[in-house]
Specification:
6-stranded mixed β-sheet; about 260 residues; two-stranded antiparallel ribbon; FAD1 flavin adenine dinucleotide synthetase; alpha/beta; 6 helices
Length: about 260
């Protein structure tokens, strides 16, 4: 198990208050935060807090989403905090920095972390077998991800996949939106994003983004001038066992969780 030093559970009351304050700001980002919170609240009201889970792999998108989900759960739960079930579908060779960040996030956000081996369909089925009460999974998918254009805020898995409702609160967020929110809200993220990486997959398919190289040094991910180059540090091949979490090529069908990193 990776060390969980430098991690302590966050004050979810302060977290929620700060997030809803950002959502109330008269700005484009404020409107997107408000919309994401509304989608999360709808899911919690529809399924109940004990029947929702988070797809989490340490990537930037699901990290932002994790913060939003905790904010909404605090408000909807009247301050009562239960462990949040989180699903991590593993792949063969992950970055040690991601593993460390995931372990720290378990403590900070009060996660009940469930790790399953890929490929994605197999991992989801195993999760479904062991957690049959979970009906909906929050996913950090965005429009710019592979197959993202085919999704809605609420998108059920395909008929031949394990049955869940995929809830996509940040679907209409951009790369810049993710970073603007995390930096405004003080959300901690995997340190690889400060070292030139903009999209994280497995070790064999991920390199630093060349668009961030300046004067022989790599700038942090949030400094990327063109969000369309977000995946420039990713190869089309890798040794992962198939799950597109985080950021590997999606399955031919849009049935899986499929969030990028």
């Amino acid at each position: 198990m990776v060390s969980r030093t430098d991690a302590a559970e966050l004050d979810f009351g302060s977290l929620s208050e700060a997030t809803y304050r950002l959502a109330a700001e008269p700005s484009q980002l404020g409107a997107k935060i408000a919309s994401a919170l509304s989608i999360i609240e709808q899911a919690v009201d529809r399924y109940g807090p004990a029947h929702v889970a988070l797809s989490f792999n340490g990537g930037k998108d699901c990290t932002a989403l994790m913060h939003l989900v905790r904010a909404a759960l605090h408000r909807r739960g009247g301050g009562k905090h239960e462990p949040l079930v989180a699903l991590y579908v593993l792949y063969k060779r992950s970055f040690a920095e991601i593993d460390e960040f995931v372990a720290q996030s378990v403590v900070r956000y009060g996660l009940d972390m469930v790790e399953r081996s890929g490929p994605m369909r197999q991992g989801l089925q195993s999760f479904k077998d062991d957690y049959p009460h979970i009906q909906a999974i929050f996913v950090g998918s965005r429009r710019g991800d592979p197959c993202g254009r085919e999704l809605d805020a609420f998108s059920p898995t395909d008929a031949d996949w394990p049955q869940f409702m995929r809830v996509n609160p940040v679907l209409d967020w951009s790369f810049d939106d993710i970073w603007s929110y995390m930096r405004s809200a003080g959300v901690r993220y995997c340190r690889l994003y400060d070292e030139g990486y903009t999209s994280l997959g497995d070790v064999d398919s991920t390199v630093r983004n060349p668009a961030l190289l300046k004067d022989g040094r790599y700038r942090p991910a949030w400094a990327l001038a063109n969000g369309c180059l977000e995946r420039s540090g990713r190869s089309s091949t890798g040794t992962a066992s198939g799950p597109p979490v985080p950021g590997l090529p999606l399955p031919a069908k849009r049935g899986g969780l499929g969030q990028a990193g």
